[in-house]
């Protein structure tokens, strides 16, 4: 009985001694790999040089003939590192198959008289490759467990060597994904996707993003995205909250200049924040500002670098977007520009020339030459009148859903219908009449305009206007990609406008027919005009 007890005690002691020996062996390997990894970091060795230091230590520890590691190198691509103690430098199992099997956990595979042991490499919990060794003997379970334990120690210890590469890879993947998202032809869709990628990599809860065209001094091109508590709450493309839209448009320029306290307070951003400026292309002028905030505290170096790279990618996309916006905003109102830029292939869908019926307006200031020579006199005052009048006239065209075609001298041409052609012919003709009436009222008020003191006390100005409903071949034409229309009807509208006296709004018979409300118009008139075969038939608008 006593002999049995002594045997049991001896077995337990032997088992403990074996465990201690295994732990010491793992500790020695850990210490050796750690020391060499520090040398690699100190000397800034590339990964292949670092592996030349580390892999022989692994082979010696487990008596391996071949050690193989597949992981990401500095190029952020998978690379195979191999160390062999003899002539044999390959594993008897295909590497791809071995990596796929090891991805689910460590494996032990007996191949003839040899044993292959492999396991997945993890860095900060993320898969980062595979490590394997070839032992030139058939190992029993205890021996296999010993090698598995040592291989695990080695893989855990090289984490530090691979961590910087893993972080760089994670950053590169995020940057590539954001760049791909922002390459979307619809900026709004691309920006939403890029923000989702940024948010998945940088722990922020609140964000303010505002940007504009580099040459925009009025704020017409201003765009913004506001994230609150991780959710996109306000968006200039949607403009679902007029109060927020008005607030941001009145303060965004100050925010971009650095005075963002009022905007941050409005959206409750009081905790730590990181700010990134977005500069223009032709100058250092700030065209955008990104402010992010997190409840977790300060952002680390990785977060800040990714925010900078996001801003860089967005900057180039803003340049492309603003180039499109600048071209479109010459002719179309903001709402139409937004709608066009929200659609892929909008140029082919809406802007390529096509024949459509449209409402057309020609209007110019009556007696403009007399006013310039007898009242304004100075060129600067004349220029101020043209700018003041034309700016508001174009706004009225846009407010009524029209397109600004061009300005010829002091004559402005507007078209109703393009680019979507989604309103009825009656709606379009009535919109043109509304615009013409509002333009006339505005022109008559110029003698009291604060920016035109020279007109004070002068005879009220007026406009002469012609309106037509006619077919146009309308779209983008020429090297400057001007949006305009061509047809005999366009020429006839110009001739009609030439027949109008100050204050008259002359409406061609086709437009009168579409409107159909005879009470709106005065008696029929006709006029024979140059280069037109048949006399123009029209009715002046009443009032």
The overall pLDDT, averaged over residues, is 87
- Overall morphology: elongated
For the largest beta-sheet, the strand count, sense and barrel status come to:
8 strands, mixed
Residue fraction in strands: 15-25%
- Overall structural class, as computed from helix and strand content, comes to alpha+beta
**Helical content class:** 40-55%
Task: Please tally the helical runs, counting DSSP H or I stretches of 4 or more residues.
Answer: 16
Low-pLDDT runs of 5+ residues are none
| End-to-end CA span | 127 Å
Over all CA atoms, what is the radius of gyration? 38 Å
Let me know the number of strands.
18
Give the tags.
five-stranded antiparallel beta sheet; eight-stranded mixed beta sheet; 543 residues; alpha+beta; 47% helix; 18 strands
Give a structural overview.
This protein has helices at residues 2-42, 47-62, 95-102, 141-157, 159-182, 187-201, 242-256, 261-266, 301-329, 334-341, 346-351, 368-376, 379-399, 425-444, 488-499, 509-515, and strands spanning 66-72, 78-84, 107-111, 114-123, 126-135, 206-211, 223-228, 231-235, 273-279, 286-293, 354-365, 402-408, 411-416, 463-477, 482-486, 505-508, 525-527, 536-540. The protein has 543 residues and is an alpha+beta fold. The strands form three sheets. Strands 11, 12, 13, 14, 15, 16, 17 and 18 form an eight-stranded mixed β-sheet that branches.
Brief summary:
The protein is α+β, with helices and mostly antiparallel strands. The protein is about 45% helix and about 25% strand.
